[in-house]
């Protein structure tokens, strides 16, 4: 069974992005072990801190990412791009140069928005980083979840059946993508 690092690009505990990540994990749609990796505690990346004694949160984060077989990113869209906290996590994991925790990890992206476009800009910007980091990103199905405010009940449960069905297929495809990428 593959272990998948789950990174949520919204720090708000009741965000649509976190609700969707929780819903995807609870689907149990494929033989994957999901491990949430918190990013809100990471200091902003600063190469000056890349010494023999980098911040403990960086070390822990890098170790957690390194232990996982793949990464699944859930991102809202802030100003047509990725939230700063998520980009910071990508940067922290990519260093020190030549020792990236992301190296060759299969990746998937699910973007979430209360708007109709579903976070397309953030999704595409995040994928640009994957190219440089040698993270093979699953191409299809793409996941842009729009109108997020209408998808959850008051307890944060996913109530939209068509979204549930789509996410089930997405997770199954992602599991297959992880296996196919490993065999290369």
Note down, in words, how this protein is organized.
The protein has 184 residues and is an alpha/beta fold. It has a single domain (2-182), classed as Rossmann fold, CATH 3.40.50.360. 38% of the residues lie in helices and 15% in strands. The protein is built from 5 helices and 5 strands. Strands 2-1-3-4-5 form a 5-stranded parallel beta sheet, sandwiched between helices. Helix 4 (120-132) links the parallel strand 4 (107-112) and strand 5. The longest helix is centred in the C-terminal third of the chain and has 22 residues, at 161-182. The mean pLDDT is 96.
List the helices and strands and how they pair.
Elements: E1 2-8, H1 16-27, E2 32-36, H2 56-67, E3 70-76, H3 84-93, E4 107-112, H4 120-132, E5 143-145, H5 161-182
Looking across the biggest beta sheet, what order are the strands in? Answer: 2-1-3-4-5
Question: What general form does the structure show?
Answer: globular
Task: Tell me what the CATH architecture is.
Answer: 3-Layer(aba) Sandwich
Q: How is the biggest beta sheet arranged? A: 5 strands, parallel
Give the DSSP E fraction (strand runs of 2 or more residues). 15-25%
Order of helices and strands: EHEHEHEHEH
What integer is the average pLDDT? 96
Q: For the terminal residues, how far apart are their CA atoms?
A: 18 Å
Q: According to CATH, what is the topology?
A: Rossmann fold
In CATH's first tier, which class applies?
A: Alpha Beta
The helix content, as a percent range, equals 25-40%
Unreliable stretches: none
The CATH homologous superfamily is named Flavodoxin domain
């Amino acid at each position: 069974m593959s272990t998948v690092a789950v990174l949520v690009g919204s720090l708000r505990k009741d965000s649509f992005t976190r609700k969707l990540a929780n819903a995807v994990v609870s689907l149990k749609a494929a033989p994957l072990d999901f491990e949430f990796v918190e990013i809100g505690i990471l200091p902003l990346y600063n190469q000056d801190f890349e010494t023999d004694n980098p911040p403990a949160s960086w070390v822990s984060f890098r170790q957690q990412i390194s232990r996982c077989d793949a990464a699944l990113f859930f991102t809202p869209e802030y100003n047509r791009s990725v939230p700063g906290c998520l980009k910071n996590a990508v940067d922290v994991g990519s260093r020190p140069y030549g020792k990236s925790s992301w190296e060759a990890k299969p990746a998937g992206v699910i973007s979430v928005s209360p708007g109709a476009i579903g976070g397309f800009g953030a999704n595409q910007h995040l994928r640009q980083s994957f190219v440089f980091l040698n993270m093979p990103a699953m191409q299809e199905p793409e996941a842009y979840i729009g109108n997020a405010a209408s998808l959850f009940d008051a307890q944060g449960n996913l109530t939209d059946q068509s979204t549930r069905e789509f996410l089930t297929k997405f997770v199954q495809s992602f599991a297959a993508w992880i296996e196919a990428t490993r065999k290369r």
